[in-house]
Amino acid sequence: MSSTSLTKAKHMNKLSSIKQTLLVFIATIVSGYAQEIDFSFQDPNLSPEKRAEILVSQMTNEEKLKQLLSSAPAIERLNIPSYDWWNEALHGIARNGKATIFPQGIAIGASFDPTLAHRVSSAISTEARAKYEVSQSMGNRGKYAGLTFWTPNVNIFRDPRWGRGQETYGEDPYLMSKMGVAFVKGLQGDNPDYLKSAACAKHFAVHSGPEELRHHFNAEPSKQDLYETYLPAFEALITEAKVEGVMSAYNAVYGKAASGSEFLLKETLREDWNFDGYVVSDCGAINDIFKGHKTAKTKEEAAAIALMAGVNLNCGFTYKFLGKALEEGYITEELLDERTEQLFKTRFRLGILDKENSENPYNSMGPDKIHCDEHIALAREAAQKSIVLLKNDNNTLPLSKNIRVPYVTGPFANSADVLMGNYYGVSPNLVTVLEGIADAVSLGTSLNYRSGALPFQKNLNPLNYAPVVVGMSDATICVVGISADMEGEEVDAIASPSKGDRKNLKLPQNQVDYIKTMIEKKKDKPLILVIASGSAVSLEGIEEGCDAILQMWYPGEQGGNAVADVLFGNISPSGHLPITFPKNVAQLPPFEDYSMQGRTYKYMTEEPMFPFGFGLTYSTTKFDNLEIRNSKIRKNKNLELSIKVSNTGEFDIDEVVQLYISPVKNNDNLPNTSLKGFQRISIKKGVTKTLNFSVPSNELKVINSKGEKIWKKGLYKVFIGNSSPSKLSKKLGAADPQIAEIQLK
């Protein structure tokens, strides 16, 4: 809503407000005294809607206004305790003491395993409930101690320079949707009457860098990109997972700040998707309507614009000006009631305002569930399944545990920070790569370690013996990368010169130099590179000198054990890239350009370094006998097919079977190819399995230039393999895909 239309509404609202005030005044005189408080809102047998209505109807305007701030004070006369809405659980309970630290979001995306995502988030919400009960018992109702988690981040990772891309599940909207839905369901539980915890889809919408511009940037995506790329994951989380919260973004979309966009918050969320949860602003985003986007003349106007558009909760302080906005007629008491009731519906759904004898099943989770053995084991499994083997020349890996002289080096080999990524918890059990390797190898092994290089700057001492040791060792494992100090949110990435984003995709130059020195000195001994990052890393000039390369992401507290499990063959690597690894930034469009042309595997035409969906195992996979049950498909009919998958190597593996569809003739700016299905399977050596896929007819539709989802007749190719279809995938070692044609009629 513009400032001009807000002024028009102001006069109408002021008349309505005066009328309401007179009615209240008359009712008070008639009654002659204050009525007793109706505490039936505590009755869990009533619906959340009814309970919220009863409660809010008894609140003063001043009380309601204070409840719209993320640190909501107590209302003692109504027995309503204080509550702080701000909490984080991106890959474990964050910023709230002891908790299990699971792999970062991008690593969970690399698993291509929605079941794993659900198990991880279920463990997180179990710890959340247990910690909540302990916190309540000691009177801790502050920030990060509640049950409303501002998680997950389902913004598309459209550009690898974005520092917060690590929080997401990747660059593909289909993968993002499947992983995000599973994660939300695990956080919120499956009880029909209560939420286990409340998840929140963020940041709505069209938000993925640059961090430096986010407070005033206006995104103008094409309607095709909006509905094909930027909105599908949000829609899935709302319509399929019934996510309880949505966080509005800092940026503007089509000229309106996201926190004041009726198109996003009213028309899309509430009307098109029937969203029935609460909307929270990103922290300080409502002030950006006034200060950053300058679409409001005053803070009162900014607050009113956000409330009218649909923001229930202000993370920040701008809603403190709503009282004046109410007095001046910018907003009505009726609207204030509506926005407040929505917030209490969430609290009632969580069961945190019930009487003490409530039958909420989630109240029984004790402190023994916090960082328990089961969750530690799950953190290790999740890290194992997320690690991607990018290169393995001459079967360098796995290494023997009886290796005589292994050498571990690199700036992150003994780093606990690099395990955590951003938005992390605190664990007493962080296992570095060095520690994991030390625990994995034989006691007779002469394990040697030197860091060899600083994380982000040149060594100050020119005398460095570390590279010399490479030539004296049977194998060298070098752990390099970046960390959340280099990539992340603008206020947290303290080592980043560009407020958390990356200017290029290379490793820090001192690390590149160190790797090149090791390549020169390794002689005929293998060099294994282990990369820690939350985004794509360019390996130009060093990839060819490495015998094996592992991408470990930010693997969580058990990352060191998981890396060692892969290096020494306890398990086969099974992660696949949820993002494309370009060769360099020259292959990318400008960062601030939100057009998808040239971006991600769907639209990129240049050959990258590593393609989306790619990941090797210690075995070989063969695909054959692709059978399309209905090659001529009419509207409203599904694509049904089957494929045989064989493990023809000598190692038991997990494999990610991927289904892509490409238009034979692309005259309408459609994606080159699109992921339409995937299955992660366990398959023992020598075994063949038959998999069935069913692609719903709605997934066969395409988005046209008007943003409409249409059935487009024509020929399409179907690919099934273990990487996105390209010559590069095959060159790097992916299996030959099975290919067939279908016709949409």
3D structure, described in words:
By secondary structure, the protein is of the alpha/beta class. It has three domains: 3-368, Alpha-Beta Barrel (TIM Barrel), CATH 3.20.20; 380-603, 3-Layer(aba) Sandwich (Rossmann fold), CATH 3.40.50; 621-744, Immunoglobulins (Immunoglobulin-like, Sandwich), CATH 2.60.40. Helices cover 30% and strands 16% of the residues. It contains 21 helices and 24 strands. The strands form seven sheets. A six-stranded mixed β-sheet has the order 9-14-13-12-10-11, with helices on both faces. Strands 16-24-23-18-19 form a five-stranded mixed β-sheet, with no helix packed on it. A hairpin with a 5-residue loop joins strand 21 (702-703) and strand 22. Helix 3 packs across helix 13. The model is unreliable at 23-34 (pLDDT under 50).
